[in-house]
Amino acid sequence: MTKTFAGWRLIALYAGLSLIVVLLLLGSGVHPAVAGGRLWEGAFGSPQAWRGTLRQMMPLLFAGLSVFIGLRAGLFNIGAEGQLLIGALATATTALAVQGPLGMVLGLVVGVLAGAIWTLPAGLIKAYRGGHEVITTIMLNNIALLVTGALVAGPLKAPEKQMPTTPMLETQTRMPSLLRLDGNNGTVWTLGSPEDPGVREMGRLAFEMNLAIPLGIVLILAFGWWLARSVRGYEVCAMGENPVAARFAGVDTRRTTVAALAASGGAAGLGGALLVLGQEGRFFAGFSPGYGFDALGVAILAGSSPVGIVPAAFVFGALNKGALSLQVIDVPKGITGVILGLLIVAFAAARVREARSE
Amino acid sequence: MIDFVRIFLPTAVSLAAPLMLAAMGGYLSERSGVINIALEGKMLMAACAAALAAASSGNAAIGLLVGIAAALVMSLAHWLFTQTYKLDHIVSGMALNLVAVGGSNFLNKRFTDLSATGQIPQLPLPVYYVLAFGLPVILLVYTTRTRPGLRMLAVGSDPGKSRQMGVDPLRVRMLGLIGTGVFTGLAGVLIVSNAGRFTDGMTGGKGYIALAALILGRWRPVPAAAAALLFGMFEALQIQFQGTPLLGARLPSEFWLCIPYVVTIVAMAGLLGQSRAPAGLGKP
Predict the structure, then answer these.
(1) In this predicted model, what pLDDT tens digit does every residue of B102-124 receive, in sequence order?
(2) Helices A7-26 & A32-44 angle (0-180, nearest 10)
(3) With an 8 Å Cβ cutoff, are A293 and B94 in contact?
(4) In DSSP terms, which residues pair with A210 in a beta bridge?
(5) Which of these, A211, A212, A209, lies nearest to A181 by C-alpha position?
(6) Which of A33, A311, B47, B192 is the most buried (most CB within 10 A)?
């Protein structure tokens, strides 16, 4: 048992981190209360704000689950960003080729598979060569960024567009809304009800939500259940705790490593797929503002239980959305990157202390 | 041939120099036992701080010093997180990268005076080249011939035994990370002074390529620097061949940019001989 650090050190750390945040707010050029208020308004102040927060939260739910799955198996999947990009591009390509609901379902499947396949080099190298998955997934991230960038600027580019982007998906290939709110008269549309064609165009759409977030929550709950109740789930946890002991206890750690990373990539790929089908309707250059990197923070914030991913993704989503409103009053959006980074440090430190004092 | 010497070689060297410097920074950190995926963030912070300081003071030396100081602060935070607070090295590295991306965006947007047209002064490049090529040799001598250097390698391979022998791993790692701060700081300053001004995310993955070079060089200074030089050459090739068809096909620039990452994965797969990390990497 390693000696842990004293309690006053944790307090000192928190004081230091808070001081940085205060300096940041003071240096933001606006009164800290104004900045804080804007952040809150931007994330929760109106149905539109809520819509934006949930849109930011959605991919983090899946990418967070992706990193979380890896962590349970004792693997650091830094590659969620790349897997999400590859999944999204594969989904967009599929859904453009096969239209309608069939294309949507097919797109989801292909997105998951593409994300999973993208982890195979990392999984196989870890399992059979012992090469650290952090390094390989970082390299795969960069390759994914370059490959998707080249494809969307080249063969997959919509010919009529100036920017590197695929064409838009047909409406019937995209995910339907579960809930819509008209900003003018408060009319609520739900799935299956006739939709006012002018809503989106006239800017009357106040709130909208599709099945992606409920799906993510169900998936997270199912994963938590599987992890706690199934033999395979137990094996994954055993390997995460102590791979050597797990191997001697009869766990096929090689296969489990490859499978866990593939599952992790599949979750990230699904996030990318749902971004295309449910939100963006296309793939374009600069598709992800760094969901896969925020996901690491989400997974750490989530703690030991997968259910924690949901509030963690919500916090990150709200901060990201709030940052966009801060930009309007000329506070750079980077402010939230700093806050998220410091949050990760704060939570990780508390967790180390918890784990060591047990 | 003249083109090769006059155009290609200087381009390749100027692209490789920051990679070589950052790889040496990574060397000092990883050989003393701290996994460093935050090279990227340290370079980015240094680039931003150097740009702000140089533009506001009009003095290249001040820019250089402030840039190095910024990377040094990041590096010391890294030490604090991993050694005092025992945070996971990957987690703290990622957190530092997030802070650097956000912080550099914040500082640059808030404090860059758009009305001032003052360019960031170009630093004398030969100094950097001497550093980039000299440093690996100096580090080789340092870690194989001097007492503190050998202690660093000892801590990096077995922190537990080193502690028993009376070498404090925490102090050794602090020295290592100070070196990382200085070298990644130099690399960041070089990048920004080459470009003339700071732009968001301008290090563009160079920190990760430097890490790749370090792994490809099997955590040894001279081979790592050679790998970094090679990667710089690939980048220069990309500029050279941009838009011109090669072997009948018009290759996108991304093809060339991918090469360092693909080569690293191939190396990790053991196809280029065994590549083994220092035994004490990431241990308390």
Answers:
(1) 999 999 988 876 655 456 666 67
(2) 90
(3) yes
(4) A177
(5) A209
(6) B47
> What pTM did the predictor assign?
0.88
Q: Which of A2, A294, A345 sits opposite B284 (nearest CB)?
A: A2
Tell me the nearest-neighbour CA distance from A191 into chain B, angstroms: 39
Residue A74 clears pLDDT 80, i.e. is over it: yes
Would you give the DSSP letter of residue B165? T
- A214, A57 Cβ separation under 8 angstroms: no
Of A154, A332, A348, the CB nearest to B106: A332
User: Looking at chain B, how many residues does it have?
Assistant: 284
Interface-testing mutation among B35, B78, B85, with chain A (most A C-beta atoms within 10 A): B85
pLDDT the model gives residue B113: 66
Set of chain B residues whose Cβ sits within 8 Å of the Cβ of A125: 265, 268-270
| Contact criterion met (CB < 8 Å) for B94 and A344 | yes
pLDDT digits (tens, 9 = 90+) for A164-174: 999 988 888 88
Degrees, nearest 5: CA angle A238-A239-A244:
110
Residue of A345, A351, A353, A357 to mutate for B, most B C-beta atoms under 10 A = A345
Using a CB–CB cutoff of 8 Å, tell me whether B109 touches chain A. Answer: yes
- Residue carrying structure tokens 């539109």: A48
CB-CB contact of B105 with B195 (8 Å):
no
pLDDT tens-digit readout, B11-53: 888 889 999 999 999 999 999 999 999 999 999 999 999 999 8
Q: Identify the architecture of domain B2-268 in CATH.
A: Orthogonal Bundle (1.10)
Side-chain half-sphere CA neighbours of A166 within 13 A: 27
Is some CB atom of chain A closer than 8 A to the CB atom of B96?
Answer: yes
Q: Is the pLDDT of residue A193 over 60?
A: no
